[in-house]
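Table S2 (continued). Query chain:
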Amino acid sequence: MTAPVRVTCRDSTRHTSDATHHRAPSIITTRTSWSLKSIVPSLRPIVTRGTAGKPVTNSRDVARYFGKPHNDVLKSIRALLSQAPACAGNFSQTSETVAMPRGGSRQEPAYLMDRDGFTLLAMGFTGPKALQFKMAYIAEFNAMEAELEAQVSKPQFVIPQTLPEARRLAAEQAWGEKNAVSMV
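Corresponding output:
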């Protein structure tokens, strides 16, 4: 289950060149407590094991998850591949058999994608689920950054700055090794 999206909308007037007015909501996010762990369980049904044993998902399941037409997801993938050909390794074009309303079936294009491909694609989406995914991704990244900062702030070992400090450290290590051997 995911945390509810708390969004406040205010109307703002946007002027266009033909002097007509359009109302466009301006979104102001309020305090949220997102975590990738709250979203990842809901992604589990769309992630399967690929032929190489790696987790993958397909474009049809992504479309269903984000509530988008499959053709729009295909267009987004193709645009992503044309803008960044280096990410082509994260996507694999395939086809799926789709049931027709009157009992037949047909082949439709689809894409398989790994985690990085899915993340690249989802970061380009809009809408409540996409916003939720992006916020959770950012929160998880910030948590990992804080964890790394905490590790950096704790020195793992001390480098002696003077000769007396070096002698004291050497004596402590020698004494510790001798006692460790005698305890065994």
